[in-house]
Design brief:
With about 575 residues, this protein is α+β, with helices and mostly antiparallel strands. About 30% of the residues lie in helices and about 25% in strands. It is built from 17 helices and 28 strands. α13 crosses α14. The structure holds zinc ion (ZN).
Length: about 575
C-alpha cells in the first residue's frame, strides 16, 4: 500500500504539497514521475514542476541520487516506512496538467504522483486537504475515513481530481450513477445549467446513445464523473476509465452550433470509455509512462471516436439531419484543403508521429501533417459507407472488437483491426492497408452518393496569392506561405511584413484581395528583418476556399433509405 496525501490548502501559492508514505521491500528503491499522461501523446516532462524532494526514514533524512531527469535511486539503511515529500507547481490550466488557484484546483495525477518501484500493482490510498468550503470530486471508491482507494498506480494516475466550492449534479444512465461538475471560470456557479436547463437530460441522452451504439445495455464504467471547465476560451477533453475532463469555451457556447459541439465533446470522451480505455491498442498494455510509445492504431482510437461523436447527438435526438451533414461537411472541407494529406503524412505515419507532430503544430504544419483525428474521421465515414455496401456498418465492427477483445481487456494489434473489418467486408482486406499507407483518397463523392449526399466546391472571389497575413504588433505579417504557391515562388517567407502592393499601402489582411490581379506580375513591397525589399508576385486564379456537403435533391428512394439507416447507425 502507498499512501499519497495532497495538500491544496494554500491555493494562491499554486503549490500542491505532496506526501507519499510506503514501506519498502528492497534496500534499493527507485522513484519516477511519469513523463506523459495516457490519451495525450506528448512527452510533457511533468518533473519540471516538481520542487524540494525530501525523503525521510525513521527521522533520518536520506539523499536521493538522481538517475535521470524524472527518476531517483534511494539506498535505504533499513526497510522501515519511508516518507517522501515534495511540492508541485500547479499553474497550467489544461485537461492534462495541474492547476490550483483561489477559485479551484484540478490535478491530473500523472503529472504529480511518483511511481515507487515495485508498487505499481499495489493499492494507492489518496487523501486530500482542501481549503475551507471546498469540495472534492474524485472518481475513485471513497473509504470510511474520507480517503479514496485506487487498486493500483495505473488507476491512481487515471484519476482526475477536481476541487472547489462548486456543486455536483446527479443523473443515471441505465441505473449507473453519473455526476456532473462544472467549474465555471467566467460566471456564477451553475450559470450553464440556467442557460441550458435540459443540459443534464441531454448529456444523459447522449450517454444512452453511446451505450446503444456499442450494443450494450449499460455503460462500461460502474459509475462516471464528468468534470467541465468552462472558460472564456479553450477546447479539449481527456478520457479516463470512469470519468472525463472537458474544457469548453463560453464564446463557443454563444454560437448557434456551440451547444451541439459541447454535446459532441461529451459523446467523444464518453465513447472513449469503450474505444481506447478498455478496447485499447496493445502498445498501451501496459502503459509505459516514461517514454513515447508508437501507437499505429491512433487513427482507429481517435478517428472512429471523432466520426461517431458527430452522429451521437443525432442518435440521441438532439441534432437534425441538416446539422450532421453540416458538421461532416466542415470536416471534409478542412480535410480536402489541408495539403499535408497528399504530400505530408499517411494516416499510419500521422498516428506514429503523434509525439513529435500533432501536439507540436507550427506555421508549416498544414504542409507536412494531417491529423489522425481528422483523416481518421473521414476514413471512418468511408469505411462505414463501404461496410454498408456489404450489409454491415462501422458500429458493428466496433462492437465485434469490443466483444472479442475490449471486454476482456485484451489489447488489439493492427491485424485484429484488419481482421475485424475484412470479416464484415472482405474487400477491405486489401483496400484498408492501402488507405492507411497511401496518399490517394478513396472515391469520396461516390461513397457520399450512396446516402444521397454530394460535395460542392466554393470558389474564392479573389485571386490566390498563396499566403495568409495577419496583424501582429501593428504590422501586417505573413503567417502562412503555401508550399509551391505564388508567394513562395515570389520569395516571400513567414514573418515578412507586407508593406504595399503595386505601391499601394497594405494595412489590414482584407486590403490585399482587391489589389490582386490573377496571372499578372505585380510588385509587392515587404520588410524583412528591418530591410525593405521589392518582390514580383503573380497571383493564381481564385482557389477553392471551402467544400460544402449537401443533400442531393436527385437522390432516389434507395439512397434516402440508406441515409436514414446511416444516420440511425443501423446496418443497411
Ligand atoms: Zn479522443
Amino acid at each position: 500500500m502507498v499512501d499519497i496525501s495532497l495538500d491544496l490548502s494554500e491555493p494562491h501559492s499554486h503549490l500542491v504539497q505532496v506526501s507519499l508514505r510506503c514501506t519498502p521491500t528492497t534496500p534499493v528503491l527507485r522513484l519516477r514521475l511519469p513523463a506523459w499522461t495516457p490519451g495525450s501523446y506528448l512527452i510533457r516532462d511533468y518533473v519540471r514542476h516538481l520542487e524540494g524532494l525530501e525523503v525521510r526514514q525513521g527521522g533520518q533524512r536520506l539523499l536521493p541520487c538522481r538517475t535521470d531527469p524524472a527518476g531517483w535511486r534511494l539506498e535505504l539503511p533499513s526497510l522501515e516506512p519511508l516518507e517522501i515529500r515534495y511540492q508541485l507547481l500547479a499553474a497550467d490550466l489544461t485537461v492534462r496538467t495541474c492547476h490550483l488557484d483561489g477559485d479551484h484546483g484540478f490535478l491530473a495525477l500523472a503529472a504529480l504522483a511518483l511511481e515507487v518501484e515495485g508498487e505499481r500493482w499495489a493499492p494507492h490510498r489518496l487523501s486530500l486537504h482542501l481549503p475551507a468550503g471546498w469540495r472534492p470530486f474524485v472518481p475513485l471508491p471513497r473509504q470510511a475515513d474520507g480517503s479514496w482507494l485506487a487498486k493500483d498506480f495505473d488507476q491512481l494516475v487515471d484519476t482526475p481530481v477536481e476541487a472547489g466550492p462548486h456543486h455536483e449534479h446527479h443523473f443515471s444512465v441505465a441505473g449507473v450513477p453519473h455526476r456532473w461538475v462544472c467549474w465555471d471560470a467566467t460566471a456564477a456557479a451553475d450559470s450553464l445549467l440556467k442557460a441550458h436547463p435540459t443540459l443534464l437530460q441531454d448529456v444523459a441522452a447522449v450517454c444512452e446513445a453511446c451505450c446503444r451504439l456499442m450494443g450494450e445495455s449499460a455503460p462500461a464504467a460502474p459509475d462516471y464523473l464528468f468534470v467541465l471547465h468552462l472558460l472564456d476560451q479553450g477546447y479539449g477533453g481527456l478520457e479516463h476509465d470512469t470519468s472525463t475532463v472537458l474544457q469548453f469555451s463560453r464564446q463557443t457556447l454563444l454560437k448557434p452550433e456551440g451547444y451541439r459541439q459541447l454535446l459532441q465533446l461529451v459523446a467523444h470522451e464518453y465513447l472513449h470509455q469503450w474505444n481506447v480505455c478498455r478496447l485499447r491498442p496493445a502498445a498501451l498494455c501496459p502503459i509505459d509512462y516514461h517514454k513515447p510509445v508508437i501507437v499505429s492504431g491512433l487513427w482507429f482510437a481517435e478517428g472512429v471516436t471523432s466520426y461517431f461523436d458527430q452522429l451521437l447527438p443525432h442518435l440521441a435526438g438532439l441534432s437534425s439531419e441538416d446539422d450532421v451533414v453540416h458538421d461532416f461537411g466542415a470536416d471534409i472541407s478542412r480535410y480536402l484543403l489541408t495539403p499535408g494529406r497528399f504530400h505530408g503524412q499517411s494516416l499510419r505515419q500521422s498516428s506514429e508521429e503523434a509525439w513529435v507532430k500533432l501536439y507540436r503544430r507550427e506555421a508549416n504544419s498544414d504542409d507536412n501533417q494531417i491529423s489522425y483525428y481528422l483523416k481518421g474521421a473521414i476514413l471512418s465515414l468511408v469505411l462505414d459507407l463501404e461496410l454498408r455496401r456489404s450489409g454491415s456498418c462501422l458500429a458493428q465492427v466496433l462492437r465485434d472488437l469490443w466483444v472479442r477483445l475490449g471486454r476482456w481487456g485484451r489489447g488489439y494489434r493492427e491485424h485484429d483491426l484488419l481482421e475485424a473489418f475484412s470479416h464484415r467486408s472482405p474487400a477491405l482486406a486489401a483496400v484498408l492497408p492501402a488507405w492507411l499507407d497511401g496518399f490517394e483518397d478513396p472515391d469520396l463523392p461516390t461513397y457520399l452518393q450512396d446516402v444521397g449526399l454530394r460535395l460542392e466546391p466554393q470558389q474564392s472571389l479573389a485571386p490566390d496569392p498563396g499566403l495568409r497575413a495577419s496583424p501582429q504588433g501593428g504590422a501586417l505579417e505573413v503567417v502562412r506561405v503555401l508550399r509551391g504557391g505564388p508567394a513562395q515562388v515570389a520569395g516571400l517567407v513567414l514573418g515578412d511584413e507586407l508593406i504595399a502592393l503595386d505601391g499601394l499601402r497594405l494595412r489590414k489582411p482584407e486590403d490585399l484581395a482587391p489589389l490582386l490581379r490573377a496571372g499578372q506580375c505585380q510588385e509587392i513591397t515587404i520588410s524583412r528583418r528591418g530591410r525593405l525589399r521589392h518582390l514580383a508576385i503573380t497571383a493564381a486564379v481564385p482557389a477553392i476556399e471551402r467544400w460544402r456537403l449537401l443533400l442531393d435533391p436527385a437522390a432516389g428512394p434507395e439512397a434516402l433509405q440508406r441515409r436514414r439507416q446511416w444516420l440511425g447507425v443501423v446496418p443497411c
